[in-house]
Automatic annotation (TrEMBL), chain A:
<keyword id="KW-1003">Cell membrane</keyword>
<protein>
    <recommendedName>
        <fullName>ATP synthase subunit c</fullName>
    </recommendedName>
</protein>
<dbReference type="GO" id="GO:0045259">
    <property type="term" value="C:proton-transporting ATP synthase complex"/>
</dbReference>
<dbReference type="GO" id="GO:0008289">
    <property type="term" value="F:lipid binding"/>
</dbReference>
<dbReference type="InterPro" id="IPR002379">
    <property type="entry name" value="ATPase_proteolipid_c-like_dom"/>
</dbReference>
<comment type="similarity">
    <text>Belongs to the ATPase C chain family.</text>
</comment>
<keyword id="KW-0812">Transmembrane</keyword>
<keyword id="KW-0138">CF(0)</keyword>
<dbReference type="Pfam" id="PF00137">
    <property type="entry name" value="ATP-synt_C"/>
</dbReference>
UniProtKB/TrEMBL annotation, chain B:
<keyword id="KW-0066">ATP synthesis</keyword>
<dbReference type="Pfam" id="PF00119">
    <property type="entry name" value="ATP-synt_A"/>
</dbReference>
<dbReference type="GO" id="GO:0045259">
    <property type="term" value="C:proton-transporting ATP synthase complex"/>
</dbReference>
<feature type="transmembrane region" description="Helical">
    <location>
        <begin position="49"/>
        <end position="71"/>
    </location>
</feature>
<keyword id="KW-0138">CF(0)</keyword>
<feature type="transmembrane region" description="Helical">
    <location>
        <begin position="109"/>
        <end position="133"/>
    </location>
</feature>
<dbReference type="GO" id="GO:0005886">
    <property type="term" value="C:plasma membrane"/>
</dbReference>
<dbReference type="InterPro" id="IPR035908">
    <property type="entry name" value="F0_ATP_A_sf"/>
</dbReference>
<feature type="transmembrane region" description="Helical">
    <location>
        <begin position="241"/>
        <end position="260"/>
    </location>
</feature>
Amino acid sequence: MEGDIAQMGQFIGAGLAAIGSGAAAIGVGHVAGNFLSGALRNPSAAGGQTATLFIGIAFAEALGIFSFLVALLLMFAV
Amino acid sequence: MGKIFFWIMVALAVVSGFLFAPEHAGLVIHPMDQFEVKPLFGKGEIGTFTITNVTMWMALSVVATIALLVLSTSKRATIPSRAQSIAELAYGFVYKMVEDVAGKDAIKFFPYIMTLFMFIVTANFLGLIPASFTTTSHIAVTAVLAMLVFLTVTIVGFVKNGAGFLGLFWVSSAPLPLRPILAIIELISYFVRPVSHSIRLAGNVMAGHAVLKVFAGFAAASAIIAPVSIFAITAVYALELLVAFIQAYVFTILTCVYLKDALHPSH
């Protein structure tokens, strides 16, 4: 597609897709905050769970990365 | 001492902001220009075997990895040098990760996972050198790494467990009417794995570098905000150092998780 309207649509779409990054930020903050509140209750068990923490963060982040990808595709590939 | 250093840096940032800021306003540095793939020699078209800057920086990260792991440990000093300690730390770190996350019987995949981790972490750190090229910011590079992991895990799963590997998709703890629906969801999430695996690494690295360049563009645009912008670059750069390591760690640990699924598919 060509033209100003199509370009406007691209930019608006990319901006809307960026909302997904904020949603992923909420998710990652939720994971990390819950880990911390659990870890401060029982600090001796926290050390062994850092791998689980990072796996949780990675899965929460994955969908935000998809929205980032959609924004990139709209900006540079469409 | 620290305070003096801090104020010297402040003065330098302010002065450099006024010295190097060009007169014309606007975003003069496009944040995506740094990811352009160019042929290393000449200006021809890029074919399959053209040596580009991606090739060069990937080769450099392989050379740096070999130098770190082979040369530094070749002396085998009882009191390790700094390079030897880093090599030993990296080995122990990845070994423990494979053992803890993927289990004892995944140890025979340790060389592969160690290679993955060292390549990604070196490529990420080399990409943080100013004016260098970040190979892991390209989905083409990370997609190959992720597809290799995906194929390895799938083949290992079927070789080890035969058709029992399909039990990964059949959630036996769920109620029976729900299981076909869950199986479809599990199947989709299984095939999305290489996509999210590769885009997570490339997206994080690319976004971080683009943010650096956006702030650099602000610094170039106006002399008044240049000092603030240069400080922001410093802060984001520190964050990027952290991200470079954490993303390599996440890539490796997810490989371990997938490997554990392949070795023990019982859901």
